[in-house]
Design brief:
The chain is built from four helices and 13 strands. The termini are far apart. The chain has two domains: 26-98 and 188-212, Pseudouridine synthase I, catalytic domain, N-terminal subdomain (Alpha-Beta Plaits), CATH 3.30.70.580; 101-179, 2-Layer Sandwich (Alpha-Beta Plaits). The protein has 239 residues and is of the alpha+beta class. The longest helix is centred in the middle third of the chain and has 9 residues, at 114-122. The structure holds uracil.
Length: 239
């Protein structure tokens, strides 16, 4: 490092300033890749499944780097999933300390009363402790179901489902529609796109350098969607 041999594996390096070489050749920092996938219901947020169920990796193209999901969505949850090779960025987005909001829309098995919504808002007791206060908005009521938007700043396992169960109902459908200011917008279900530089900055910024023209020559086209637009049912709030 900077011309000296470093033998301590815990030695910190500053990728912007330190010059690292191996056998005399410089080691380049891999460019950061940041994508947004509209995960369909029925896809696992893991790489491989022993039962051979589809995973999110079946939907994204090979961009020449290993991309890990930023947090998880349950098998039965659809919506916005970020994937990146920038672990600092991923930690920023997922750490509850940074209060990056995650927005969900849920269809519940019963009509929810104002009192139930208020319990969800003010923090509800779960087996792993009370939830933080959340923004909760009734989108509309059907004959038997409530459509509700919930904005969380923490991401515990199956949190929305458990909150709604603790409030006395059940989730029938769950879609994540936004992370911080990044919305899923018009992206079709099963499709992905790269985040813009503004979107990366809005979620804490990149810890890896941008791709150069030559580093983007690998397959950069979105994978073909395997599902139809009919599954894009988070738009229920607009119907
Ligand atoms: N809350 C849930 O219950 N499931 C998800 O997939 C995400 C948040």
């Amino acid at each position: 490092m900077n011309g000296a041999i470093v033998r301590n594996p815990d030695h910190w390096v500053d990728l912007a300033r330190d010059r690292i070489t191996l056998d005399g050749k410089p080691i380049a920092t891999k460019a950061g890749i940041y994508i947004l996938l509209y995960k369909p219901k029925g896809y696992l947020t893991t790489y491989r499944d022993p039962d051979h169920r589809p995973t999110v990796y079946d939907l994204v193209a090979d961009l020449g780097a290993w991309l890990a999901p930023v947090g998880r969505l349950d098998l039965d949850t659809s919506g916005l999933l970020l994937m990146t090779n920038d672990t600092t960025f991923a930690d920023h987005v997922t750490s509850p300390a940074h209060l990056v909001s995650k927005t969900y829309q849920a269809k519940t098995a019963t009509l929810l009363t104002e009192e139930q919504l208020e319990r969800l808002r003010s923090g509800i007791e779960l087996s792993d402790g009370p939830t933080r206060p959340a923004e909760v908005r009734r989108l509309r009521d059907g004959a038997k179901h409530t459509f509700v938007e919930i904005v969380l700043t923490e991401g515990r396992n199956r949190q929305v489902r458990r909150m709604i169960e603790a409030a006395g109902s059940r989730v029938l459908k769950l879609v994540r529609t936004a992370i911080g200011p990044i919305r899923i917008g018009d992206l079709a279900v099963g499709k992905w796109r790269r985040l813009t530089e503004e979107e990366i900055a809005a979620l804490g910024g990149r810890a890896r350098p941008p791709e150069t023209a030559t580093s983007r020559t690998t397959a950069a086209r979105p994978a073909a969607s395997t599902r139809s637009r009919a599954h894009n049912n988070w738009r229920w709030s607009k119907s």
